[in-house]
Every structure is written in structure tokens, then in C-alpha cells.
Amino acid sequence: MSANTRDVLICAAALLEQGRIVDRLSRLLTAAALVSLAVLWFFRIEASVEILGFATLVALAGLAETCLAIRVGFDAALFDHQARAAETPDFTRMDAALVELGLLPAAKTGRPVSARVAGARRLFVLQIIALIAQVGLAVAGGWLRLPAR
Question: What angle do CA 20, 86, 7 make, to 5 degrees?
């Protein structure tokens, strides 16, 4: 592996590690939505269908973000391991292990590093989009609670 490839993997792993920050923010919103739904249900508080819908959508967007965070974190760990390996990283062995675990389709084996990084970056962007959707839905749901003037 060239020094440039190793540098790309190190940078990609560092970028994907930022997914932890996104995940922490999302977990706060997801927890708030779930607690709100639980309180409304437990105390039998009447709420509009819109409020219930927005809280449910915030929680579902949080679930999607969590799934993406798991994958982004996994990719970050794999890239970091490959970049820091003392010997020349062997993507063939890694691909075989991922196929055996059912985490990589056989058709995607043997891809260059640039394609792997681009795919992981797409997942990271989707993770950010899920957080933005959560924030937007929470704001929209809160807007419904404002008194009419």
C-alpha cells in the first residue's frame, strides 16, 4: 500500500469518527421523543395526532440514524485498522471475512480504496441527513404547540 493510500485511510477513519458526535446529538432527540410518547401514553394525556406523529417520526429518524451510526463506526474501525497495520493491509482477506459474515456482497469484493471511502462517506452523509431530519421534525412538532395569535 502506498503512503498516499495509508493517509487516505487515516483521514477517512478520522472523518467517520465524527459520526459519534452526530450519534450523540441524535440520541438526545430520540430519547426526548420516546420519553414524550411514553409520558403521553402513561398519563393518558390527550395530544393531537400531529404531535404524536411528529414525535413518532423523530424517533423513527433516530432509529435510522442509529443504524447508520453503527455502520459508519464499523467502517471507521476497519479503515483505522487497515491504515495502522504494520504489514501491508490485505483487502482480499478483509473482503473474504466480510463476505463470510454476510456484511459485504461478493460482487463488491476487490474494490479500490477510493470506492470504499466514497461508500463510507455516503453513509456518513446519510447519518447527518437523518439528524437534520430529526431536528426539523422536532422543530416542526414544537411549532404546532405554539399558541395561535
Answer: 55
